[in-house]
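Bench log, entry 3. Co-assembly request; chain sequences pasted below exactly as received.
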Amino acid sequence: MSASKEITISPTTRIEGHGKVTITLDDEGNVADAYFYATEIRGFDYFLRGMEADRLPFIISRICGVCSTAHVVASVKAIEGICETQITETAKKLRELLLMGQIINNHSLVFFFLTLPDFWFQQEENPSKRNVFQIMRERPDVGRKAIALRVFGARILGTIGKREVHVVSVIPGGLINPLTERERQELLKQSDSTLEITKEALELGKDLFDKNWEDFKKAGDYRTHYMALENADTMEFYEGKIKAIGPNGETLSKFSPQSYMDYIEEKKYPWTYAKFAYLKTMGWPKGIVQVGPTARMNVNGKASTEIAGSELKKFKRKFGSPAHATLLFDYARLIDLTYACERTRQLLEDETLTKTDTRIKVKPRSGRGVGVVEAPRGTLAHEYVLTSEGKLESMKLIIPTQVNNAAINLNVKDAAAEFIQKGDVKPGLLNKIEMVVRAYDPCIKCATRQANQTLTVELRDRKNRLLRVL
Amino acid sequence: MYPLCNFVDVDYYVPGCPPMPLLIVHTIKSIASGKNPPRHQSVVCTECHRKIVPAKVERLYGIYEKEANRELCLVSQGFVCLGSLTREGCGAPCPRSGFTCFGCRGPADSLLYRTRDLSAFLIKVISTRTGIPQEKVKEELYQNPFIFHTFIFSKFERFKARERVI
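Structure output for the full assembly:
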């Protein structure tokens, strides 16, 4: 078979980390195959072996600057799983608030800075104009609101976590510092305007989404399984059970976080540094599963807050349940954001949040433990095995992007086949393909964790001269 | 472990994981106006509110083994805090909140230019502040070598671009 033409998008822009897309066309100019690659490697699983459990969460958070908080909380939960610690109610609420801060911070970044330019401008627009700075030039108020939302998210992390990026106050056994009444009042005051901005963002997003919906209805609607954390059929980010549903909405399995690794298996391919996670019971490739905002909408029947609850119902009525189109990730992300803002408000209004019993003593133990939380991009799981000296023997991380990796590849191919016919590459096409990738908001730097035997590292100086191969 | 400047020319090291927002702003502003960025020289301890009082503790503690006193230096309480080695400029958010500094801003000038041997320096600091004999501190620290090598490498002779750290 001779591949007559190859289209490469490298690097894919406005995502986290370094990725690449290649589309191969056959002799007639139709899409033969398409791949989404992770082109970097981090190696956290390898160099952290032997690390003492004490410091593990704070190094693990360095795997990603964007969702560092979700990683810290998952990591701490895994260690608590090993030590069989039950933390206090206050600590649970504060950690949930931290996760909400993370969601607000991240989703406002993804919506305003990464995906909004695609919806805002025509597809044929000059790419140099298609960015957030142009939006800020045209509508300074939108830019100001976007930043205000991000600041609020960062402020929650800064107040409770004591650092905006890589929070330090979350430790095994709870939190180091309780929230003071003054801090609670200050956050509560700021949350008013945030909720208003979120409502406006939701309306703006829905408007722009509707304009693009016809184009993307068929692009990337591969039918897969979905998985998310749930608590009695309600949206949940911190604790609960993991529910997996099939392509037609039927419940496949419900399992506790501690048995996560019994249900999820990973697969390697030599052409990318990111592994593929799938449902073990269904096998590969039947068990391809997706996590993230759309999965949260598909898996959960309701949300516990007012606006997000009604938006969730509207979403289900409009797109069916489960909904499959890739671009719905962008829509669902806004519902997530609304939920996070409302839930933050709910948690902050609770006066028991300032109780000082945030910490209990942990007895270090050896063993295996899993911690699962809903990160902004989907269900995140950390599994650690600790030795009797409290050091890390091995670890396994299942990152949302790894779970979505298979679906990203399939949907990129699906979208490419939709947009490219008979070798006719229309203007704006590459951006449309990138939009599909962007909808997943893949975090490649977290997901690149595979090292093959043949891995080489090339050191180059700034003139691109090869210095050394490791 | 080798520093980056051994392989490529480094214009500036902007310390911190992540660098503080104001540091980035000041750095870009000064480079744009053709000046050298402001340089922090001292250690994190200078920005920490905790009082350094020589104390008597029996052994070193892990972060979640006991609750820390809010006013006293973490090292005096037996925790391994790297504030005395690490470059200032962050406002010491970690030790202020009761969590040990783990050196994300890299070595301070005192290490880069004078002491150069990180482990010897740390052992001396811990031993004076806790009253534990140096040999015992050394023994306990060397069980967890990651303490030194999460952000800082131990041999500063290799570090050529010292004046490039801001």
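Chain A has a mean pLDDT of 89. The first helix of chain A runs from residue 44 to 47.
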